[in-house]
Design a protein that fits this description.
Strand content: 15-25%
Largest sheet: 7 strands, parallel
CATH architecture of the largest domain: 3-Layer(aba) Sandwich
Order of helices and strands: EHEEHEEHHHEHEHEHEHEHEHEHEHHH
CATH class of the largest domain: Alpha Beta
Strand order of the largest sheet: 3-2-1-4-5-6-7
Shape: globular
CATH topology of the largest domain: Rossmann fold
Number of helices: 15
Distance between the termini: 18 Å
Radius of gyration: 21 Å
Structural class: alpha/beta
Number of strands: 13
Length: 374
Amino acid sequence: MRIGIRISPLASPLTGIPVYVQNLVEEIARIDRENSYFLYTNREIPFPLQLPDNFQVVLVRRPYPRLQLWYQIGLPLRIGKDRLDLYHDTLFLLPFFIGRLPGVITIHDLSGLLMPDFHQRKVSLTSKLIPLAVKKARRIIAVSRFTKEEVERLFPSARGKVRVVYNGVSSIFKPSPPEEVDRVREKYGIRGNYIMYLGTIEPRKNLKGLLRAFSTLRNKIPHWLVIVGMKGWKYEGVFQLLRELDIEKRVLFTGFVPTQDLPPLYSGADVFVYPSFYEGFGIPVLEAMACGTPVVVSSASSLPEVVGGAGLLADPRSPSDIAMKIMRIIEEPQLAEKLSSLGRKRAGKFTWERTARETLKVYREALESSSQAS
């Protein structure tokens, strides 16, 4: 087979979807030396990809990338030149003009459609193309059962085409030795015990709820709140609330943290908290559990499915509930130890190799359905 995969997300910082794309491609490259792969991007990838000879990175720069012209004109032309048997878009879209070429799309979540106020305008506008991509796709990969149910609820015609393929967690995420934890503490200026969050600072992630929860605990525990992640959009309100609650001296913003520093950061935290309003999966939760850190996650969307009983659930719209669950872990060492053990076992069930093998199975299904249709 000659398979095309969109890898343009790798030009962005390695969070969320870029993590998915990188690990998917690397694992497919490790297990499949027979098929030929064409990896399409409109931007240079800022780090080297160590790939075998059956993989080729294809830079599509024309027409000018504004208004997605590279994607809707340049990419279909290149796809035709490369004589693909199948195209996989890792960002839920498909080019308008790919003819009868079987297409596979990955849908990470539908928040751009369902919660436009939680996104920048360009994301919400792009999300309006999802219905067309769903209709055109031969197969749809959903990263959780929750996402699959959302797709089928919004698009009944998708039933029968959606396959759940879970994300994985890299083997680098495991409990770190004390000296590594001390190294990152010193590097990021963390003094004392801490509670950790990782994710983009934006409305959907519910940082305001976390800050309100932490403010009720500040006189009961000595912990810092360490917020790891980049500024997204509409983040100003988070910093304004920080000042209003007068907890600036107890909250540390690290900004973006390179991957190699994440395992010791997770390992050093007493609790990892992920109170998001809406997630299609939630890779940071798996990473924290793999490092043996007890987790408190939102009871909404896919997060209960990912945690599977190995963490505490909290109502994302109730700061008091978030605070109560954090306190339970801090005050009950036996509970913390139990959740640490359960979390590592749970995270061990999610591997990128499994993601890659199940994705290859979806490719074969898409090709078979295409041949039957013709």
